[in-house]
Design brief:
The protein is mainly alpha-helical. The protein is built from eight helices and no strands. The protein has helices spanning 5-32, 35-61, 65-92, 100-113, 125-152, 156-177, 186-208, 220-262.
Length: 263
Amino acid sequence: MTAALPLVLTVFVACAVEAIEALTIVLAAGLTRQWRSTFQGMTAALVVLAAIVGVLGPTITLLPLTALRLVVGALLAIFGLQWLRKAILRAAGYKALHDEASAYLREVAAAKAAPEVAKRGVSDWYAFTLAFKGVLLEGLEVVFIVITFGDNQRNLGAAVVGAAIAVVVVTVAGIAVRAPLAKVPENALKFLVGIMLTSFGTFWGAEGAGVTWPGNDAALLVLVPVVALVSLGYGTWLRRVHRLSQAAARPRTAFTETEGVTS
């Protein structure tokens, strides 16, 4: 179990982020509209996810490990770099920080404005579709993380444990406070997840391409800090550039306004 702990923790953090976003959508639908239709949407999404897992799980395990690591490693690296890019831009001030409370309020406002329409045996179709899409989309990312990490490490059980703990913890917290988990440092979590996905994706992709890492899995102990330091360095540099550009823009604006008044 000790050997699987890094895998469990990585999957836990990644899946917790997705679970928080799904929770925000479900709470907005349930508290604003009605819980019955919301639960129906959640159930339908979970059934679809179960079907996808039933098809994808056995199919992926049939692939040769080398090809699996090459393909999945590339996908994870792309996925992780997208998360890192957004996290770095947020840290530097070029992109607004993700605010779960604001996202919740936007979903609530949209839910209140939508008409209540009964359709296909569902009393509130809007609540049903909102919950269905939210749980399905975030759930697909959870499934992707679990299957790719689990199969690559040949320890699907540990990946499932990490995901299950994340979903349970977020769900229990959501039920307890009946509000989005706005105080959770989601931006920091996304930065961490981006680092982990990029590191693992690079490691597995290189292995699939025939690279032999010094120390085998122990190379991750060097690769992860390197990716983290590079990402933090980019964030620090971009934040400094952003502040300098803002400072340089202020005098020009003031000069333009003064010049206009004088003329």
